Amino acid sequence: MSGRARFAWALVVGLLGHALNRFPVEFIPGIDILLGFFLIIPAAPLLGPWGAGLAAGIAGSVTIQLWGHPWAFISAVAEGVTLGALTRRYWPLQADGLYWLGGIPYLVVSYMLGIDVSAMSALAIALKQALNSLLPALLAQVVMMSPAVRARLWPLLPKGMCTFSLSSAVSSTLLLALTLPLLMVGTLEGRSRYAAERRRLDDQGLATAHLLAETVDAELAAAQAQTALLASVVIDWWEREGQRPTQTTLEGLLRDWAYHSVFSINCGIGDSEGRLVALWPPLGVASKPVAGEDFSDRAYFQDVRRTRAPLVSSVFAGRATVTGPVMVAVAPLLLQQRFEGFASLAINLPRMRTVAQERLSDGQRALLVDPDGNVAFDTGADPGPKPASIRGTHLGEALEQMPPRGTRTYEADPLAPTLRRTLATRHLATSDLLQPGWRIVVEHPMSYLEFSFVGAYRALLATLAMALLLSIPVSRMLTRMLSRPVEAVSDAAGRMAAGERDVRAFGVLHRSGAHELEQLGLAFDEMAARLQRHLLDVERASEAKSAFFSIASHELKTPLATLKLRVQRLRPGAVRQQDLDLMDRQVDRLARLVNQLLDVSELASGRLALAQVPLELSTLVRRVAERRAASAPQHRLTLDLEPVEGYWDEPRLEQVVYNLVDNAIRYSPEGGPVEVVLRKQPGEALLEVKDRGVGLGPRGGEELFTRALRGSTLSTISRVEGMGVGLYLCREIITRHGGTIHLASRDGGGTCAIVRLPRSDSPPAD
């Protein structure tokens, strides 16, 4: 691939990887898998170092926006360049593994310094990126070992990937087969762990919120009851004495009251105009007396004058004896249904905050929020001079979307990059109070990478490491199981190619192994045995063919020599009838020999056709038998023929009858009778040709029906004419008529040729 082509392909692969990386797949909540690397890693061996680095940089640029740091982008570029270089000699999985041996420590340190996360979180992120690369590298390695892919990518593959061993293929496939289920199980286990942790947080948060709500409700109810009781004591004294209590009297009453109350910081009595008449402790901020202070602008004074009922105020900034957030319980002073003033208790919020903090679990934070969104106390922050408000904050927006009692998560920093946003996610549990609009909020940081996912990753990576270590000896064992039979077959094939005929892969010993490999070895042994038999048959056929050509040349040379001699003796006026008769017989003999050769050739090529016509068979048999017997006066011909009609090929049956009678005569060299019998039987015609000749010999008659095997192979015959194809032609012709032919020995010596021809009263279908 040229440099321009690699650059163009790098751009294409990088852009496609960038598009895929914009849609990460959530592997475990808080941990995303970028799909773009499933294109970059397989393309690295084909693009080379700089092409792979360019493609990885384009695809990995999306991580800067997603995660808010450049370390993943730098790692992607370095990984692409390294893979492009190492795959010149190594396969993708080995190359990527070598890269991540140094890449994981680098990323851990980079993340800890660059994005301010813990070492455990940085390790989880680095392991995630390693897994994000090793999985596509493993997939690419297995795919590139498949024959279909290699056939298409062969010209583009680097030298290191042009060949591979059976052990590498088995171990890679085995590792993939182990890794994918483990990843699936790890994913499900991580999600299950997350769901269990989420349920635990929900239950824990709700339980804590309900407990704190009950505690705060009890505190507020007690403070409200104390205030109402204080107001009734003041009114009783007023009615009994008939005049308003003096400041000194009220301060004495309030002093005893404040010392015996654990729910309040101070106690006070005010008049109907909102001015403070008495307060205990009497000194406020900077040790100044606070009696006479005007509190008519306080919302709680206006509410109690309007409602004339005990109430608890919202949170406000203190200015008398309390600096910071304060809330009070207020009760009206009603004398004969006239509003004469109010009694107030400043609720002890520091004590309430301390009680709430004691009831929280590690990492939890509790807030008491009033209906206006002001924070009465916050166990996670020190109180300021003014009440903090959650209105307009992310927490406030999350609470507005929550029911009075329930749980949810919210992002404390939704505009931050993915990693910071994930780490800043908070879990909320709320419970409302008896006071309308008041809520207890229990918050807990999710810290995905800290409390659950790092553990899931550590377990998953440990399992994968164990699978990798186990796959090495297992793959070697499997490779030996697979390679031994294959090596035996390969060795046997090499020996066979060297010329050994009796070579076998398994031999007579059975080698235990996989069924398919055993079948391979046994199939090779069967093939070798068949090949050996075939070679023997070929050698026999070659020998028979040589013998056939020798016989054919002799048979053709004899009539030709006779014809030549007779032609030379022919002179004008010297023609003798006996010479003409001899020449006629020799020409007929030559014609028969040539016709037999042609018929054998047509049978071998499958072109021998039959033209079946109505035929009376006894007439044909008589004519042919008598014609052949006329040239052998030393033999006595006996005919026993019944009329038989049917549809047959007349010229071909003439060949059959002639060859059978000819064999009976030729293989009876000392003379003797030749009997021809034709019988009509149900559905067929039976033809028998019998002689008293030499017989079939010890090998029987079936071998005589093969091509180029003649009776001269019998040791008792040495001078029999013919090329040895007559019976072969007879069997083929009879078989094509649908009949059978065989030879049988006769009692007392001799041979009987038995032919059975199917007989039909209608012409055969084409």
Coarse structural class: alpha+beta
- List how many beta strands DSSP finds: 21
| Shape call | rod-shaped
Distance between the termini: 63 Å
Oligomeric assembly: single chain
Helix coverage percent of residues? 40-55%
* Biggest sheet record: 5 strands, antiparallel
The percentage of residues in β strands lies in 15-25%
Q: Report the uncertain regions.
A: 708-722
Mean pLDDT: 79
Q: Gyration radius, to the nearest Å?
A: 57 Å
Number of helices: 20
Strand order of the largest sheet: 4-3-9-8-5
Task: Break the fold down into its secondary structure elements and pairings.
Layout: H1 3-21, E1 25-28, E2 31-33, H2 37-60, H3 62-67, H4 71-86, H5 92-114, H6 119-144, H7 147-153, H8 166-241, H9 247-259, E3 264-271, E4 276-280, H10 299-307, E5 311-312, E6 316-317, E7 325-326, E8 328-335, E9 338-347, H11 349-358, E10 365-369, E11 375-378, H12 394-400, E12 406-411, H13 418-423, E13 425-432, E14 439-445, H14 448-451, H15 453-497, H16 515-569, H17 577-605, E15 613-616, H18 617-629, E16 635-641, E17 645-648, H19 650-666, E18 672-681, E19 684-691, H20 726-736, E20 740-745, E21 751-758
Parallel strand pairs: 16-18
Antiparallel strand pairs: 1-2, 3-4, 3-9, 5-8, 6-7, 8-9, 10-11, 10-14, 12-13, 13-14, 15-17, 18-19, 19-21, 20-21
